[in-house]
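Worked Example 4.2. Consider the chain below.
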Amino acid sequence: MSTVPDHFSQSRSLSDRDTEKNHGCKEVSFDVGDPLDATQFSRIRKWYFTFLASMLVLNATLASSATSGILSGIIRRFDISSEVALLSTSLYIFGYVLGPFLWAPLSEMFGRRPIYIISYLPYICFSLGCGLSQSVASLIIFRFFAGVCAAAVLVLCPGTITDIWDARRRGSLFCAHYWWVYREFNWYTSPPFENLISGVLFIVMVFTLPETYRPILLVKKAEQMRKETGDHSYYAPMERDGRSLAGVLRISFSRPFRMLFGEEIVFLTSVYVAFVYGLLYLLFGAYPIVFQENHRFGHGVGGLPFIGLALGCAIAALVQVWDAKRDLKTPEDRLLITIMGGPALVAGLFWFAWTGTSNVHWIVPTLAGVPLGFAILTLFIGFLNYLTDVYLAYAASVMAANTVLRSLAGAGFPLFTKQMFENLGVQHAGSILGAFAVFLAPMPHLFVKYGPAIRARSKFTS
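Applying the procedure from the previous section yields the following structure tokens:
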């Protein structure tokens, strides 16, 4: 997920500015109330663009589990095993691993709007190809490329929110955005319905979503001023950056890995977020085992226990809105709510594990979803906000690194969920996950204590 551009820093040294002034060069900037400045959009427009971007993410995210609801039909049609059928979900998510490395640098070269368009149209086409596939190989290939294209909106939506909202509102908006996505995430929608919604969203996006990326908007302002005044000394910082697309792509592919394995904060938070993200996908395989196999729920009501997860996410969103009112003096202040998420995850996992048997009333494991949903959202949003604040100038690379690790977890966890819970049993399988959660739980506390010292010796921190 990308929030702030890596490669086009707007800060310039005083000596550089003096040199430009002596040569008659005029660097453009936004004035207060400048209509081209995305941060000056009216509040109604900001909310609309946030809603539209969130709808694009919601649609792409729901598509990741679209084949889960028709898995038995895929198995019968192509006469394949359940493990092969699950590849239709796993490879879609694996597309999230590669997508950010392509779309993030392209958005930093050409802006958000063109990338929204050139990625979403192929996404629709590949999704249609899935429905028309005559073999399991073509289905899996189309799903993979659909995931690569869908990754664009995962990268661009946080960037759009960052472009138009200030830092104080950004935290609560990220939380509201992901709560809405995860609240709807458990509903399996049919692929034809997904394609219909995708087509409608694409048309609305083409005609209503403007460019919001600040460096590109400054380029447009410089072009406008040169045209209006006839003075060609006006320029935007990006016009003199001197970087080629090949250079930006090279940095985009190398820097995330250098930061992932060279920055303690990036590596440790990415491991925690990857576990939480993989756990979310694992639960979509574990819930049917607990409620449909153990408690004999039919397919029609088998999704109702997910209400517990949705309720937990809603509580987390409300707490995040309350927390956003605090004055944040350091990036570690973002971790107050995250500290609560660690114990909640441990409690939820052991609760679910040891009440998920047929001799315990179904409402008990359903209620375990409340602390699980609360923990998943608070840990996910808290750590992503923390990474954004710590690595403000390099947030695109940090989010790419984080996306790689969590997408690998999201793609891998469903492949062993069924075997793990059926061979070990719900109690022991859930306890193993709970033990990992216990091991990771102290991490927010450690960053609160040692985070400032770690940031002080990093060359990438803001």
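The domain at 243-456 is CATH 1.20.1250.20 (Growth Hormone; Chain: A;). The longest helix spans residues 264-294. Compare this with Example 4.1 before moving on.
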